[in-house]
Amino acid sequence: MKQFIKVMKALSEPNRVKIVKALLKRAMCVCEIQALTSLAQPTVSKHLKVLEEADLVTFSKESLWVNYRIHRESPNLYAKTLIQLLEEWLEDEAEIKSIISKIETIDRYQICLANLNKSKKKKEV
C-alpha cells in the first residue's frame, strides 16, 4: 500500500503531472523543464525528487547535465501502470497541449548560455 500512496501523492500535484507529461515526450534537464513550466529551479528540483522517490522518473548524468526521463522499467507496478495510462490521458487539456507544443523549441544550450550571460551581467554590476 505504501508504494501506491507514494505514486498517487506524487501525481496529485498538477505541476508534477505536467512534468511527467513532458518527460513522456523526451528526456530533459532541470533547466529545460524550468523553461517549459515557468517554475523556479528549486521548485522543479523538488518536484523531480518527489517523482523519483515514487519511481516515476529516473535520471542519468551527461557531461554538465542531469537528464530526467520517465522510469518505464519501474519496479513499482503502480508507477509503471500509471505511466502507461498517462501516455494517453490529458492529451486534450489546454495546459498540457501548451507544454507539449513548446518542447521542440526548448534548447538547453540556449538556456544555459542565457543563464551564463545573466550571471556575468550581475557580477559586472
Number of helices: 7
Parts with pLDDT < 50 across at least 5 consecutive residues: none
Q: How confident is the prediction overall: mean pLDDT? A: 91
CATH topology call: Arc Repressor Mutant, subunit A
Strand order of the largest sheet: 1-2
CATH level 1 name: Mainly Alpha
Overall body shape: globular
What CATH architecture do you see?
Answer: Orthogonal Bundle
- CATH H-level superfamily: Winged helix-like DNA-binding domain superfamily/Winged helix DNA-binding domain
Taking the sheet with the most strands, its summary is:
2 strands, antiparallel
Q: Summed up, what is this model?
A:
With 125 residues, the protein is mainly alpha-helical.
Describe the structure.
The protein is mainly α. It has one domain (2-124): Arc Repressor Mutant, subunit A (Orthogonal Bundle). Helices cover 63% and strands 10% of the residues. It is built from seven helices and two strands; from the N terminus they run H-H-H-H-E-E-H-H-H. It has helices at 2-10, 14-25, 30-37, 41-53, 77-86, 94-103, 108-124; strands spanning 57-62, 65-70. Strands 1-2 form a two-stranded antiparallel sheet. Strand 1 (57-62) and strand 2 form a beta hairpin. The longest helix is centred in the C-terminal third of the chain and has 17 residues, at 108-124. It starts with a helix and ends with a helix.
